[in-house]
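[SOLVED] Need 3D model of a two-part complex

Original post:
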Amino acid sequence: MTNTSTLQTPTLQATTVHTDPRPRPITRQRSGDVAAVPAAVRSEWIKLRSLRSTPGLLGAVVVIGLLLSWILATFVKTDPDTHLPFTVGETFIFSTWLTTVLAVVMGTLLFTSEVQHGTLASAVTTQPARWVIVSAKAVVGFGLGLAMGVLGMAAGLGGAVLGGLETGDTSGSLATAGWGLLLTALAPLLGLGIGMLIRHSAGAVTTVLVWALVIENLIKGFAPANFSRFLPFSAATGLLGIKSAGDNAETLAAALTRVQDAFLFSGYIVLAIAIGTALLYRKDPN
Amino acid sequence: MITVTSLTKQYGPRIAVDDLSFEVAAGRVTGFVGPNGAGKSTTMRMMVGLTRPDRGDTTYRGVSYADMRHPARVVGTVLDARSMHPGRSARNHLAAAAALASIPARRVEEVLSEVGLDSAADQRTGGFSLGMRQRLALAGALLGEPEVLLLDEPSNGLDPDGIRWLRNSLSAFADGGGTVFVSSHLIAELAMFADDLIVVGGGKLLAAEPVVTTLARGEATVSVRTPQAAELGRLLERHGIDADCADGRLSIRDTTIADVSQIAFDNRIQVIEITETRRSLEEILLDMTGASAEFAAA
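Solution:
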């Protein structure tokens, strides 16, 4: 029996010499990677629109917005804190908080579903400048969040009108809608960053939901308002200008301005995406 | 042409790929073989920048993968045929890949047709068989009309017809001047269409040579059935040829049918049957890699 120890020393394959007349492959200029971003955005857009879950999610945003406003208008009718009747001018924004959470979840899936299904490896093989892929996902996520915000607010408006609410004071509604849209547009980017850190769909979605719906509320329960105002979803609430049932004089006094909340929320996004991008370069994709 | 130089990758105490150097020629199909754990997949991943080597590099006609402006137009890869979103159609899967690589959308229809998936183009890949996924993965590799194909176990899950199709496709690609580097555990299958072999074991290079050279490693045995076995045995010994005799049959190594039959003819020895057997490529490679196999049956 032949064994490996008796083999001849392997040599480079020299038995076949082919002279390739083709020119060398065109080399990449690092500065030219920016030019690849639009193509990557097109790719991400195709990925997003080609899944049934995307229209399903947008439909869910509409249903939630419509139902929430309609239920408030039809069954609750008055604000339990102020005892004043709900109006269209304030009710249309209520579902935006849930839209924001859904948008964060959607943002996590933009990345984690690629890891889960092994398509991230194909993507980084096609585009070795990995930051280009992250940028494209951020652009598409921003657009998706914006669309979710518009649909959610439109549905909230429709539900309030259908429920027969008075128009009320609408002087601040345009500004509220603008801040709300900024929030829903940024929310998938936060999700993208979280997804890049956790890299697992179920883990990332669970983390987002538990943090947004449970942990932050627990922290607010025992931490001073001067601390809890810096939490990410507190900043999100601040951007919407919504008062919650747990707010008291101390929390209201400590509240940041909308501009500060916007910078704080963006800061979390930048941090998460920066660390996530560094990990994307360091860790081998599946 | 692909040039792999000193590729090395270590995971903890285990060296997955150990100073691996070889070249893959254009216009030929080169098989990449070795037992499980030999470092084939790790090597292929390092060749396209998916795994960072501890040392060494890979160049494609002098340019490393990460330095190419449009790598998908130079190297088509299939490293895992399962890598596709089950909720996305074959057409959209390819359209997204084409868009990322700035490849014209018309190529999507062309490659779907090339791999025989045009009728399933709008089906979601979640319902695809493994064979269909292999075809779709190959379609993705062909999108950029590359000059190099890098395929990790592309025949997994293919039926006999699919394997024949793959074999013919890869051979045609190489005949057109393309470079095909394909790993497979189906060695008998690989022997039918590979021109060259890179053999690895335990992360090390064991051989890099044409298939015919590897086949020549298998000793030929000439078997002769004759009523005069003892007499023929003595005659062969006189010619310096050792023969084993059992049940009226002689087994002779390191010779040819022509030599043995000539000796028998010259000495009026009656020969009822004379055959030459060679060890298969699979047997030869098993011998070559046996000592380095990480997982072997008891």
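Edit: Chain B touches chain A through 71 residues (CB under 8 Å).
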